[in-house]
């Protein structure tokens, strides 16, 4: 006879909802756990069953067939190749959830500055980051996209909606780049 999954009691659901709201209300993200919360919220605990069902990246790397899909954008402007490249992106997104892009034409110094800008943002004082905290808006800073799921990740995210393209003033100051250092094409 198969084991039946037990549903959480209403009190447990209410406790998790209160803990999620408390964490969200701090607007401090994961970094806020070390300064603003006395007890670890229950949604960060994973039962042995949940852990067993979620292999770590280390486990994935042990498999010899592990290779991140690579999408080559060389030829993307050619109508004959465009459809094939888009199909590769769709397939990689569905099967993997991510992929590496090569031959995209973005200079290395621009990519480095983008990474440095995100690092500068996360290293700022809490008071500066909280002005961007939320799950809506053109530029948003938030903790974990699935706080109510089984086994949440310990991650803070800075996200930007790219269409329509936000003006530079919409970006956090730490992420803005001097225009003379970027090549726009």
Structural features, described:
The protein is mainly alpha-helical and 185 residues long. It folds into 2 domains: 7-43 and 106-185, no CATH class; 46-104, no CATH class. The chain is 37% helix and 9% strand. The chain has helices at residues 10-26, 33-36, 48-53, 57-62, 79-95, 108-122, 126-129; strands at 70-72, 100-102, 139-143, 156-160. It has a two-stranded parallel sheet. Strands 3-4 form a two-stranded antiparallel sheet. β1, α5 (79-95) and β2 form a beta-alpha-beta unit. The protein is globular, with a radius of gyration of 21 Å. Mean pLDDT is 75; it is low at 1-8 and 179-185. Residues 68-163 form the Non-haem dioxygenase N-terminal domain. Keywords: Iron, Metal-binding, Oxidoreductase. This is 1-aminocyclopropane-1-carboxylate oxidase-like protein.
Structural class: mainly alpha
In DSSP terms (H or I, runs of 4 or more residues), the helix count works out at: 7
Shape: globular
N-to-C SSE series?
HHHHEHEHHEE
Whole-number total of structural domains? 2
Strand order of the largest sheet: 1-2
Share of helix, binned:
25-40%
Major sheet, described briefly?
2 strands, parallel
CA distance, first residue to last residue: 63 Å
- Uncertain runs: 1-8, 179-185
Q: Report the mean per-residue pLDDT as an integer.
A: 75
Count of strand segments? 4
Radius of gyration: 21 Å
């Amino acid at each position: 006879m198969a084991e039946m999954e037990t549903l959480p009691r209403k009190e447990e659901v209410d406790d998790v909802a209160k803990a999620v709201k408390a964490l969200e209300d701090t607007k401090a993200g994961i970094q806020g756990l070390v300064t603003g919360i006395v007890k670890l919220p229950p949604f960060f605990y994973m039962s042995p069953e949940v852990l067993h069902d979620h292999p770590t990246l280390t486990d994935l790397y042990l498999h010899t067939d592990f290779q991140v899909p690579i999408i080559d954008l060389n030829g993307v402007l050619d109508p004959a190749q465009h459809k094939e490249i888009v199909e590769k992106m769709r397939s990689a997104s569905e099967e993997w959830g991510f992929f590496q892009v090569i031959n995209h034409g973005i200079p290395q110094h621009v990519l480095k500055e983008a990474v440095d800008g995100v690092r500068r943002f996360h290293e700022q004082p809490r008071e500066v980051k909280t002005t961007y905290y939320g799950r809506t808006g053109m530029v948003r800073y938030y903790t974990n996209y699935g706080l109510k799921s089984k086994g949440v990740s310990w991650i803070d995210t800075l996200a930007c909606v790219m269409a329509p393209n936000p003006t530079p003033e919409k970006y956090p100051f730490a992420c803005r780049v001097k225009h003379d250092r970027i090549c726009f094409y």
